[in-house]
């Protein structure tokens, strides 16, 4: 059983230990899918009692940090494209409005 947030525990639950071990053995980090945050296995080991409850362990997965960087860069590229499209639409709208007057 994983104890609730804020309570002290003497040992790390098996599921949490397995997650950290998987990440360590595969040279991966632990990703929080809900908060979009990354933890090294060592960081997670020190913070797990604050982060993990009986109900939220599934939000944490071992993932390649290199893939995380690639996904972040792809998200930035898409956001930049949307911003450029919006800017073009905005400029076109006001250009038409100025010609109407």
Shape: elongated
H/E element string? HEEHEH
How far is it from the N-terminal to the C-terminal residue, by CA?
71 Å
Task: Please give the number of β-strands.
Answer: 3
Total helix count?
3
Reported for the largest beta sheet, the result is: 3 strands, antiparallel
Given as residue ranges, the uncertain stretches (5+ residues, pLDDT < 50) are 3-9
Helix content: 55-70%
Strand order of the largest sheet: 2-1-3
- The average pLDDT score comes to 88
What portion of the residues fall into strands of 2 or more residues? Answer: 5-15%
Specify Rg, calculated over alpha carbons: 22 Å
Structural class: mainly alpha
Summarize the structure.
The chain is mostly helical and about 100 residues long. The chain contains three helices and three strands; from the N terminus they run αββαβα.
Characterize the structure shown.
Helices cover 58% and strands 11% of the residues. The protein has a domain of 63 residues. The N terminus is likely disordered. The termini are far apart. The chain is built from 3 helices and 3 strands. A 3-stranded antiparallel beta sheet has the order 2-1-3. It is elongated. The longest helix has 36 residues. Helix 1 packs antiparallel against helix 2. It has 101 residues and is mainly alpha-helical.
């Amino acid at each position: 059983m994983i104890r609730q947030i804020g309570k002290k525990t003497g040992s790390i639950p098996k599921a949490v230990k397995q997650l950290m071990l998987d990440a360590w053995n595969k040279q991966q980090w632990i990703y929080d899918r809900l908060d979009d945050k990354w933890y090294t296995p060592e960081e997670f080991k020190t913070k797990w009692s604050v982060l993990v409850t009986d109900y939220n362990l599934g939000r944490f997965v071992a993932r390649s940090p290199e893939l995380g960087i690639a996904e972040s860069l792809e998200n930035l590229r898409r956001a930049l494209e949307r911003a450029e499209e919006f800017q073009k639409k905005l400029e076109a709208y006001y250009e038409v409005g100025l010609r109407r007057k």
